[in-house]
């Protein structure tokens, strides 16, 4: 239970810092609330961080996280990635992130349909 609370706290801090560091480029408050309500609270914090790591780093994702992602839907993935990718330091690599996002989605759908 403590580990879960720690992961939730870590995810919340990451999202809050990302928004606070560059307030001029932050997404609208209603979008942030939508992200929180539709994605972050439904996908485990570990999976949300894994999804972000796959797209913005060179990480891998577990099959169980793929199942969670597909269950929540493409809009959830798109919103989560957009929230992070809209930062000025990341915009220049948008094409790379979009490809990784689509590759991740396709991989997760493939895993979910074969299980």
Automatic annotation (TrEMBL):
<protein>
    <recommendedName>
        <fullName>Prolamin-like domain-containing protein</fullName>
    </recommendedName>
</protein>
<dbReference type="Pfam" id="PF05617">
    <property type="entry name" value="Prolamin_like"/>
</dbReference>
<keyword id="KW-0732">Signal</keyword>
<feature type="signal peptide">
    <location>
        <begin position="1"/>
        <end position="26"/>
    </location>
</feature>
<feature type="domain" description="Prolamin-like">
    <location>
        <begin position="38"/>
        <end position="109"/>
    </location>
</feature>
<dbReference type="InterPro" id="IPR008502">
    <property type="entry name" value="Prolamin-like"/>
</dbReference>
């Amino acid at each position: 239970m403590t580990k879960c609370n720690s992961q939730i706290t870590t995810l919340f801090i990451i999202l809050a810092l990302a928004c606070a560091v560059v307030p001029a480029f932050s997404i609208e408050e209603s979008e942030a609330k939508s992200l929180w309500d539709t994605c972050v609270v439904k996908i485990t914090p570990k999976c949300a961080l894994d999804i972000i790591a796959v797209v913005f780093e060179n990480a891998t994702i577990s099959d169980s996280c793929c199942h969670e992602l597909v269950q929540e839907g493409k809009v959830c993935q798109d919103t989560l990635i957009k929230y992070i990718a809209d930062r000025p330091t990341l915009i220049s690599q948008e094409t790379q992130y979009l490809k990784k996002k689509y590759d991740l989605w396709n991989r997760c759908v493939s895993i979910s349909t074969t299980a």
